[in-house]
Amino acid sequence: MTINNEELELKNRLSLIEAMIAEGRRTTESWGKIFVVWGLAFFVAFAWFAVGHSSWAWPITMIATYALTRVINARWRAGQPRTSMGRSIGSIWKAMAISMFILFPAIGISGKTVDPSILTAVVATMLGISTAASSIILKWKLQFGCALIWWAVAVVSCFGTISQSMIAFLIANFFCHIVFGVYGFICDARRKRQEAIHA
Amino acid sequence: MTANAEELELRNRLSLIETMIAEGRRSTESYGWTFVLWGVAYYVAIAWSTLGHYGQAWPITMSCAGLLMGIIVWRRQVNSGRRPVTTIARAIWSIWIGVAISMFVLLDAIGFSGRLTDWRIFSAIVATLIGTANAASSLALKWKLQFACAVVWWATSVVCCFGTEKQSSIAFLTALFLCQIVFGIYLMIGEARVRRQEATHA
Question: Where are the domains of chain A?
Answer without folding.
Answer: 3-198
